[in-house]
Write a structure and sequence with these properties.
The chain has eight helices and seven strands; from the N terminus they run H-H-H-E-E-H-H-E-H-E-H-E-E-H-E. The protein is of the alpha+beta class and 233 residues long. Helix 5 packs across helix 7. The longest helix has 17 residues. 20% of the residues are buried.
């Protein structure tokens, strides 16, 4: 029989190759993995996105989410897993809201971090000033720290910029009380060491805040995460 004659046997099919990158996917235990991801989520996550993170089929993840929520209810945990806005997220259980409120209010007496003190100093010397300009001076995104200062009553909204419409911030009478000052005129003469606005690129002239891609993001007050500059927020 010549090499060119058919043998009657079908050639062996080559095994299908796995999708590129599939070997890198890790399937974690579904319930602990879901808890880990949901713990750091700042918005509701749907079961499809969660399935991609934990490496399980979306249908299995959806079942696991329902079981987790039910188990938290049965065990009377201090938190609950809710399905809201098309996704899932952890929330403090309503009956323990008083304990959370007490913790938050007592936390207002905690010392300010270096990041908060620096942000407050910029506001004090350049007020009224917008968050974008404070971010430009400090070289970091100050949204979280500014919210903390507002919550503590040290800084408050002081109108809007007539050209850009950006919200302006200024120190409050409580700030003077905490600093032991009768007026802003008693502040130490540090203003010359801060850059003048005319010498800087104004992010508001471009109609935007300083994006996180251009500024190191600071964590809200009270966290222990350290940013790349080495300061804690």
């Amino acid at each position: 029989m010549s090499d060119s004659e058919p043998t009657g046997e079908s050639p062996a099919a080559e095994p299908a190759s796995a999708p590129e990158g599939a070997e890198d996917l890790v399937s974690y235990p579904v319930r602990p993995a879901l808890e880990a991801v949901l713990m750091v989520a700042d918005q509701p996550l749907d079961h499809v996105m969660l399935a991609s993170a934990v490496g399980h089929p979306p249908a299995d993840v959806e079942v696991a989410l329902v079981e987790l929520a039910r188990s938290y209810d049965d065990e009377d945990r201090g938190f609950e897993l809710r399905q809201v806005a098309g996704g899932w997220r952890f929330y403090t259980r309503a009956e323990y809201a008083g304990a959370v409120e007490r913790f938050v209010l007592e936390g207002q007496q905690a010392r300010l971090t270096q990041a908060a003190l620096e942000t407050m100093a910029v506001v004090a010397y350049r007020q009224p000033v917008s968050r974008a300009r404070v971010s430009a001076i400090r070289g970091v995104n100050v949204d979280g720290v500014m919210r903390t200062l507002v919550t503590r009553g040290l800084v408050a909204e002081a109108g809007a910029d007539v050209e850009t419409g950006a919200i302006l911030y200024a120190t409050t009478p409580y700030f003077l009380e905490r600093m032991g000052l009768s007026s802003l005129d008693e502040l130490p003469d540090l203003a010359p060491f801060l850059p003048e606005m005319d010498d800087m690129d104004d992010p508001e002239s471009l109609g935007r805040e300083v994006p996180r891609s251009e500024a190191v993001a600071e964590q809200p007050e009270g966290t222990e995460h350290e940013d790349p500059r080495g300061e804690q927020a």
